[in-house]
Amino acid sequence: MRSHAGRVRSRDHGSEYLTFGPNRSLHRDKVSDALDALFTEVRRQLARLLDSPLDPEYERTALYVAVWAHAIAIQIHPFEDGNGRSSRALMDWLLLRLGLRSIPVEVPKSEYREVLNYYYSTRNITPLCDLFLQLYDSQS
Q: Fold for domain 25-138?
């Protein structure tokens, strides 16, 4: 087992920055606060969604929240390795908690990375969400 496995980067552990594709993670000193902020927002969005299960946009909004949380978790890059897998597990947990199906990422990695990187450079999450909506709909 690798000594860094499962350990969140912090002031006393891990690389200062990690590079993934053309992107750079948060500084390790900011990871803890960024994760707290992410999970605070996820809890808020989860409660809001669970309070309105009959909303006609429920499924679409739930998918957007889950995809957004996944993308932000990757951008924070809390671990030395396994950030993509961990963030997809977070996304799937949110979807299941909201009564939806998990979404296997069964597209070429290049397509997935392209829309993820597009989100990081533009803050336009629509192409990333559209990809996951297509994957979700294809499972029906």
A: Fic-like fold (1.10.3290)
